[in-house]
Design goal:
Radius of gyration: 19 Å
Helix content: 40-55%
Number of helices: 14
Order of helices and strands: EEEHEHEHEHEHEEHHEHEHHEEHHHH
Mean pLDDT: 94
Strand content: 15-25%
Number of domains: 2
Low-confidence stretches: none
CATH superfamily of the largest domain: Aldolase class I
CATH class of the largest domain: Alpha Beta
CATH architecture of the largest domain: Alpha-Beta Barrel
Bound molecules: flavin mononucleotide
Number of strands: 13
């Protein structure tokens, strides 16, 4: 298959691969810049950045300044395409959007919450606004809302299916029967709902699929079904440039298929993670005493939450994996080595080029 470029608004990436934003601190400047240098789009996660102690009193300012540092660092390492991932459930989401835009980021990827006011918060800047959705229904809702309120449409959608890592936009029941909610099923639906908006605004609305995409063959398959590109997370964790601890990466390498499970996150959404000592402990009847340090999440019910998710994610990032939460995608168990981003991207590109896509040939 010929490797297509990925166009999102005014951005044209040579390689149709977006490295997904991964919090807390999993995808920072070094990973994002390496992906951008390899021709893809690198995404900085804006979640839980900065000195933890200082954040206890000045969460918003510390987060903002740390995001500015990450964006500037990434920009100093690449001239390629960079994005910032922002979760709508964050108490400082609006501030992070304004900060990323003020720093001249090319694309804001917005998930875990409806981006009802995103165009207004981002302002008139030349930034591409790309919501993450898990259904055609929500995509339609966002486009209808933006059309009515702002007379504009999205620059693209990340369509995240049920095999992704981190928080998931599906109910526990849906995740029990993921074959009924696969990307293969949702992609044609979303391609249909964007059509009238593409006509109205005279531009294409690229759909970037995410979740469980592992190799070049998977990418080629998605492209042949109409995706403009793919977003991948787990595979980028096991790269030299990903800043998580060695222990975090080793947990991926050690994980068996059955170790990867669905959890109920304090964020109020299900998530996918590696079943480790930490998860076994928090699944038990005992509840940890939580000292909420900075109210990072609007949705977190501190009184009933079994643990502080920010603390659990920082612990695994730092290497204390027995006391931390390790998010990963459903296919993470297939990863068997740590490589450079360049090696991984070259392997994926070669895989797309050599992929056999019978459906495409038949079309
Ligand atoms: C460790 C980890 C952390 C993640 N954190 C976030 C996040 O903070 N925000 C977000 O929108 N998606 C997050 N994701 C989802 C990824 O951006 C990506 O869409 C997903 O991992 C794709 O599935 P894959 O891992 O099977 O490639 C996370 C995924 C992982 C593996």
């Amino acid at each position: 298959m010929v490797l297509p470029k990925l166009t999102i608004g005014n951005m044209v990436a040579d390689v149709p691969i977006v490295q997904g934003g991964m919090g807390v601190r999993v995808s920072l400047s070094s990973l994002a810049a390496a992906v951008a240098n390899a021709g893809g789009i690198g995404t900085i996660s804006s979640i839980g950045l900065g000195d933890i102690k200082a954040s206890e009193t000045e969460y918003e300012r510390i987060s903002r300044e740390a995001l500015i540092r990450e964006i500037r660092k990434a920009k100093s390492m690449t001239n390629g395409h960079l994005a910032v991932n922002i979760m709508g459930v964050l108490s400082n989401a609006d501030d992070l959007v304004r900060t990323a835009v003020a720093e001249g980021i090319g694309m804001v990827v917005y998930g875990a919450g409806l981006p009802t006011k995103l165009p207004e918060i981002a302002g008139d800047a030349n930034v591409n606004l790309v919501p993450i959705v898990s259904s055609a229904r929500v995509a339609e809702l966002i486009m209808r809302m933006w059309d009515k309120r702002y007379d504009r449409t999205v620059d693209g959608f990340i369509l995240e299916g049920p095999m992704a890592g981190g928080h998931l936009g599906f109910s526990l029941d849906q995740l029990d029967a993921i074959e009924n909610h696969s990307l293969d099923l949702i992609l044609p639906q979303i391609l249909d709902v964007v059509k009238p908006y593409e006509v109205k605004y005279g531009r294409s609305i690229p759909i970037i699929t995410a979740g469980g995409i592992y190799d070049g063959q998977d990418i080629a398959r998605m492209l042949s079904f109409g995706a403009a590109g793919v977003q991948m997370g787990s595979r980028f964790v096991c790269t030299d440039e990903c800043g998580v601890s060695q222990e975090f990466k080793q947990a991926y390498l050690d994980a068996k298929e059955d170790d990867i499970v669905i959890i109920k996150s304090p964020v109020g959404m299900p998530g996918r993670a590696i079943r480790n000592k930490f998860l076994i402990r928090v699944e038990g009847p005992e509840k940890q005493r939580i000292k909420c340090r900075y109210r990072c999440l609007t949705a977190c019910k501190v009184a009933s939450a079994k643990y502080c998710i920010a603390e659990a994610l920082v612990k695994s990032y730092e290497g204390d994996v027995d006391n931390g939460l390790i998010f990963c995608g459903k296919n993470a168990y297939r990863i068997d080595k740590i490589v450079s981003v360049k090696t991984l991207m070259d392997e994926l590109i070669a895989g797309v080029r050599s992929a056999e896509i019978p459906e495409l040939k038949a079309a």
